[in-house]
Predict the structure of 6-pyruvoyltetrahydropterin synthase.
Amino acid sequence: MPPICYLSRTEHFSAAHRLHSPYLSDEENRLLFGKCNNANGHGHNYVLETVVGGSIDKKTGMVANMEDLKRWISTAVLDVLDHRNLDVDIAYFKNRPSTVENLAVFIWIRLTQTVPAGLLQKIIVSETPKNKVIFAGEGLTKTELEECLL
């Protein structure tokens, strides 16, 4: 069996949002999300780390071509999210809060449409240097998959 390796690529994008749940009252949203519930929203310079893994190809010596990985991320994520208002521009967030957790799920689903099956291992989405989410695709529902691809 060939050795297994993991490759990681880090990209950055900027996006605005407002933390607000349609399932809570305005007061509950203010109490839960604090200043992040500001009616005018706020923005982040997000950092996305995408990890792919698999066997090293005997012919190429690679798990995946880094140029391909760069293109997959750009097409699936950066072209869609960079300099956007998540709550206004991305249909996935019309009925769910645009938390970093939900953003990670959205990104994962988008990446599964461009990264070849079996390569994507996990993503790490940081909204600040101190706050990040790690997601590896567990627990996704068919509904979430369909909503994300609209």
Q: What stands out?
A: The domain at 4-15+42-148 is CATH 3.30.479.10 (Tetrahydropterin Synthase; Chain A). The chain has a mean pLDDT of 94. The CA atoms of residues 18 and 116 lie 33 Å apart.
